[in-house]
Design goal:
By secondary structure, this protein is of the alpha+beta class. The chain contains 14 helices and 13 strands. Strands 2-1-6-7-8-3-4-5 form an 8-stranded mixed sheet, with helices on both faces. The protein has a 5-stranded mixed sheet with strand order 9-10-11-13-12, covered by helices on one side.
Length: 570
């Protein structure tokens, strides 16, 4: 399946198509939002501790500490109401995080370094950095903050207790690193959980789309094969297209192989040309035929229009049945980039059952036509063999009686004999019509049809007929009907040509295998001509047997009789 974005200059050819579609921008996500409750709780706690530790400064009226304490308290209260937000692709977010760290470092450095009552507030700044950008960033921030507070301690006064300050610096640096580690690890775990959650949601969405696709295709496979009439199948195909897709124009082409043209069988929307050749088909349609897969065009250029000139996006797919190209479907819309990948997948799944339904209907129409021709031929043969000769005899007798009457001779006895012959012909016509109407159905199996037919043959002829029918299961209706026609032809041949006195008919079926045997004691076929006499309908019987995968054997001996055996093997 191909996706074509036709935003190219008009002079570029079809091979210059850009494959793929522009991806939507990534959603801006606050990376600190998942940790907001923890951040707010720790921020509130460190602020309260800092204010409590600064209480002596309020008593001693140390205005420097008081001022910084108010700044830190006001800032943290502000952040409690308006939490820090961090987006990985947003530079202002990074500046907000770093600004918070710098503010607390300055506050701690200005109020006594590691002895500052505001030192606990620095933990919150490092923690926010870890939640925002992970352990590595938080570690760098923590170490840089510790150095920024520690270094001035050693160089600011000559009365500093180096050992004590060093121990204190190491202690707080370790605590800041620990906070960075915990915050970074928490962020890693949370990001992984969020990734798996999003992956699960994505898979769920894909499964939902797949389920909808399968449901739609199930409806298609249930609806399209419901009829074997070509017009009904084409109408049903267009109806299903309207249910499944949003389009402004739809066209269904069928390939006329005899003339190698593409005829418009159905359309919905703007009326297309009735017939296309391979040279006049739109370029994207030809591409779908070449690739034998659906092609989606995001933007159709005016210089290379689709089926309808007013359409600006399209979806085109070939109709393939049994690896045979038989047609194509074109869906178009007046808006560019209207169709999506889901529409392409849905059409890809739709065209196969649709093509099979159309192909089955066309084949059924051909077979129905062939079957009708065969049936007309058989009826003509039956009428000629059974009725035609009798009518010719009656016409000859009437002419003879008219001539006799013209001479003044008595024709009463001749007329009575003619009346008897006419009644016989009427009976033959009635029997012929009855035989033509008789057939295997869902309610009438092979054994029942044979029994009725053989009873009529025995009643109208001098042949003694014996039927042995045993069935434990039925064959498909098409197979049983063809076997019935073979049996009918074989028994009719015995009645008319074999001069037999006895006929034995055997029928066996278990639902998977079947055997039909018609044996007579008649004159048989002349030596060397078994199965080659078309006048006996043998060629037709062989063709019927071949059409259902049965084997037909004929054994005949002149003066002894003939046995016809037709068998379907599992």
């Amino acid at each position: 399946m191909a996706i074509i974005e036709e935003d190219r200059p008009a002079e570029l050819g079809p091979d210059d198509a850009t494959i793929g579609a522009a991806l939507p921008p990534l959603r801006q996500h606050d990376l600190v939002a998942e940790f907001r409750p923890a951040v707010l709780a720790i921020r509130a706690g460190t602020t309260i501790v800092s204010v409590a530790m600064a209480a002596p400064a309020f008593v001693d009226r140390d205005w420097n500490v008081i001022a910084w304490c108010v700044v830190i308290a006001v800032y943290n209260v502000f952040r409690l109401i308006f939490p820090v937000k961090y987006v990985s692709t947003d530079t202002p977010s990074l500046l907000r995080v770093l600004g918070e760290v710098i503010l607390h470092v300055l506050a701690v450095s200005a109020t006594g370094y590691w002895e500052s009552p505001l030192v606990f507030a620095l933990i919150t700044a490092v923690m926010v950095a870890g939640f925002a950008r992970g352990f590595g960033f938080a570690l760098r921030v923590g170490v840089a903050s510790a150095l920024a507070v520690s270094i001035p301690t050693f160089f600011g006064s000559e009365f500093v207790d180096t050992e004590t300050e060093l121990r204190r610096a190491v202690q707080w640096t370790g605590e800041l690193i620990l906070v960075a580690l915990l915050a970074g690890y928490a962020r890693r775990v949370t990001v992984e959980v969020d990734r798996k959650h999003n992956l699960a949601l994505d898979r769920l969405g894909r499964l939902t789309d797949a389920n909808l696709l399968l449901h739609s295709l199930h409806q298609v496979t249930q609806t399209l094969p419901a009829s074997l009439d070509v017009d009904d199948v084409l109408d049903s195909t267009m109806s299903r297209l309207r249910d499944l897709f949003d389009y402004d124009g739809a066209t269904l082409f069928l390939l006329e192989e005899t003339e190698r043209v593409w005829a418009v069988a159905r359309w919905d929307g703007p009326r297309p040309a009735p017939v296309y050749t391979l040279d006049t088909l739109p370029t994207m349609v030809v591409q779908a035929l070449d690739e034998r897969a659906p092609v989606m065009v995001g933007k159709i250029l005016p210089t290379r229009p689709g089926v309808s000139v007013e359409m600006t996006s399209g979806l085109y797919a070939p109709l393939l049945a049994r690896n045979h190209l038989m047609g194509l479907i074109a869906l178009e819309h007046s808006e560019p980039h209207h169709f999506r990948a889901r529409d392409q997948d849905l059409l890809h799944g739709f065209v196969e059952p649709a093509a099979l339904a159309i192909d089955n209907a066309r084949w059924f129409n051909r077979l129905r036509t062939v079957g009708a021709d065969e049936e007309r031929t058989r009826i003509a043969r039956d009428l000629h063999d059974r009725i035609g000769q009798s009518l010719a005899y009656l016409a000859f007798e009437l002419d003879r009686i008219v001539k006799t009457n013209a001479k003044g001779d008595d024709v009463t006895k001749q007329l009575e004999r003619l009346r008897t012959d006419v009644r016989g012909v009427i009976g033959e016509v009635r029997d012929t019509l009855y035989d033509l109407r008789t057939d295997v159905t869902d309610d009438q199996d092979m054994g029942g049809v044979l029994r009725e037919f053989l009873d009529r043959v025995e009643a109208r002829s001098s042949v003694e007929i014996r039927l042995d029918a045993q069935s434990s299961g039925r064959l498909p209706l098409l197979q049983e009907r063809e076997l019935w026609r073979i049996a009918q032809e074989a028994v009719t041949n015995v009645e008319r040509h074999a001069r037999a006195t006895k006929v034995a008919v055997t029928w066996r079926s278990d639902g998977a295998r079947a055997v039909l045997i018609v044996a007579d004691d008649g004159i048989g076929f002349p030596a060397g001509k078994v199965g080659r006499l078309d006048s006996y309908g043998i060629i037709g019987m062989r063709e019927r047997a071949a059409s259902i995968g049965a084997a037909l054997d004929i054994v005949s001996e002149e003066g002894v009789g003939t046995t016809i055996r037709c068998e379907i093997r599992a």
